Amino acid sequence: MSIKVYVPRDSSALSLGAEKTAKAIVAEAGKRGLDINLVRNGSRGLFWLEPLVEVETDNGRVAYGPVKPKDVDGLFDAGFLEGCSHCLSLGLTEEIEYLKKQERLTNARVGITDPVSLEDYLSHDGYRGLQNALKLTPAEIVKQMTDSGLRGRGGAAFPTGIKWNTVLNAQGDQKYIVCNADEGDSGTFSDRMIMEDDPFVLIEGMTIAGLAVGATKGYIYLRVEYPHAHKNLNTAIASAEKSGYLGADICGSGKAFELEVRLGAGAYVCGEETSLLESLEGKRGLVRYKPPLPAIKGLFGKPTVINNVISLASVPIILDKGGEYYKNFGMGRSRGTLPIQLAGNIKHPGLIEKAFGITLRELLYDYGGGSASGRPIKAVQVGGPLGAFVPESQFDTPLDYEAFAANWAVLGHGGVVVFDDTVNMAKMARYAMEFCAIESCGKCTPCRIGSTRGVEVLDKIINNQDRARNIALLRDLSDVMLNSSLCALGGMTPFPVLSALNHFPGDFGGVAAAEK
Amino acid sequence: MSQSDWDKNAVTQVIDSLKDKPGAMLPILHGIQDTLGYIPKGSVPLIASALNVSRAEVHGVITFYHYFRESPPGKHTIHVCRAESCQSMNGFELEVHAKAKLGIDYHETTQDGNFSLEPVYCLGNCGCSPAVSIDGEVYGRVTPERFDEILDEVRAQA
Asked: Cβ of A160: how many Cβ atoms within 10 Å?
């Protein structure tokens, strides 16, 4: 019998040479006349060990990494196909501390299965949520979601069950499920990993959403920067259609749901839900006024559930194990798990799915192992380009929506970007304004004009021009953007700007910056 | 290929195959750019007529999105990530190096027509910063030296 060897096809693994490693393994096995079955799985999310090669043994999967093509010959010599020891040995994959301590609910299959194999998906508990949902009424499905306590993982943390209930009760001849897969936040990649490494779980989640609210059509609005996700989603959708998990008659239930992937075109603001809907309709991605909410008047004016990838990918496990099961993870009003993405200047970057409540310090040091550069960590930015910079004094804050809000910070989509002490926070504040100016949709003045004025004022502060007055002006400008922008782009750019100013006044000229 | 000799038949084919989709504008623009590498100005009236919108609206959509381009790209398009995670791992030095190495700024193409350089705000490879992508393939932990090696590899593939 051939031996199963796993080499990831996740784009982060590919970015570190996984394709060449895979080819080298196949070539070497051929040369030695050994029979291997190469599986291209997703990534386990331990990026400092990629390309991470696994071999199936009687005791479980054994890992080696990082494996470069030049290591392959030696691995065969050492007998890695029998799980033998080598200097790149990591032992049983499941026993690797970083992975073992996690609570992977949404990402249960990520890195384990062949992402586009429906057979693999089914043999790893796939489509059990849908089978349960097919036995329930729409209101009962929505109740499971409400019971789970799931809040929107895109960043806004709105209760998913309430959103679904609004759409369920809205009148419309056509309703839609839209997946926001425009993961534009720097430091985030959990949507990408779901779509590349376990696309069926998103498809299943959207199908259940369709059953719950009476929608027969779904769109995945995917950012164009994710070509591998695009390919895997389309392959998985075709396979689900062929096997009756999508289409006019889902699993013989007589209920219909069809799914289509649409590509964005490099506009960050299209991650804002109403801008995304405009873009799907074929227009410029200008933010809409709310109300009406998308749940009442969304895509093409019809009632629409619009949820982030992780929210929708968490639906199958909730319907499989029940809302109560999911709710038992977490703390306070933050229920369940959050896929945390540890990125930037960190020794052990990766995907860490944990129940809410873990602290930043545990993430940065127990998991992350400190900075990659070996220098002290000065700040972390949590929640993407619109998230606050968090100083060392707040590293003991638990990951919880309310605890972060109390520090005037956000969890957002769960991205954590680490900076060492070489970072200049005034320059980061300037970058935040610059990014807002580049990505503003232009509809509202505080964002469109404010961001450009913000760059100018910060340039003056950085160049030591009349600092005290310009810092006062920056605070005033931030106040206007914060309180009068139409959406979170202009409305939250002051988070990184003011947190940088308040926590790191030394980078803004010291004394003057401290006067609030 | 210059602006004047674009393939009208190819554009018409893309438009005809996609125009009946709901919200067909972006799929059509992607289809044209996938086929020709850019969206020729002359295709704007064709799209407008097929979708029953004004030329101004088509132009407005094309120019709103950073990804769409109205001039032919180089043989290879390099996207360098400028976002925070990459900045934290010397991404700025990489940007400076890439521009100097290619002798061009963002949104420009090298004289030999080989490379176009574009900024990008996150490739979702933040666990392996800094990142660049070339023709859609992502590369991680890119030092200036590795950038030069990758360029040589891409040139050799040609």
From this structure: 26
B84·A344 Cβ contact <8 A = yes
Contact list in A for residue B95 (CB cut-off 8 A) is none
CATH pick for A118-326 out of 3.30.1330.30, 2.60.120.280, 3.40.50.10170, 3.40.50.11540: 3.40.50.11540
CATH number assigned to the domain comprising residue B132: 3.40.30.10
pTM to 2 decimal places: 0.97
- Assess A15–B contact: CB distance below 8 Å, yes or no: yes
Q: Out of B22, B126, B137, whose CB is closest to A417?
A: B126
Rounded CA-CA distance B129/A110 in Å is 21
Is residue B70 in a domain?
Answer: no
What distance separates the 2 farthest-apart alpha carbons in chain B? 51
Give the confidence band of B5 by pLDDT, cuts at 50, 70, 90.
confident
Question: Residue A288: left if φ>0, alpha if ψ -120 to 50, beta else—which one?
Answer: beta
In this structure, which topology does domain A3-100 adopt according to CATH? Answer: Glutaredoxin (3.40.30)
Inter-chain CB proximity B65 and A264 less than 8 Å: yes
**Cα B41 to Cα A108: distance, rounded to the nearest angstrom:** 48
Complex ipTM above 0.95? yes
> How does residue A513 score in pLDDT terms, banded at 50, 70 and 90?
low
What is the rounded average pLDDT of the residues A268-276? Answer: 98
Nearest chain B residue to A417 by CA distance is B85
Q: Decide if B88 touches A, using CB distance below 8 A.
A: yes
Interchain contact, B64 vs A284, CB within 8 Å: yes
Distance, in Å, from the CA atom of A291 to the CA atom of B81, rounded to the nearest integer, reads 36
Can you give the residue range of the structural domain that contains B152? 76-157
Distance of alpha carbon A77 from alpha carbon A173, whole angstroms: 65
Residues A360-407: tens digit of each pLDDT: 999 999 999 999 999 999 999 999 999 999 999 999 999 999 999 999
A178 - beta bridge partners?
A219, A306
Total domains, chain B: 2
A42 in contact with chain B, both atoms CB, cutoff 8 A:
no
Q: Which CATH class is domain A425-514?
A: mainly alpha
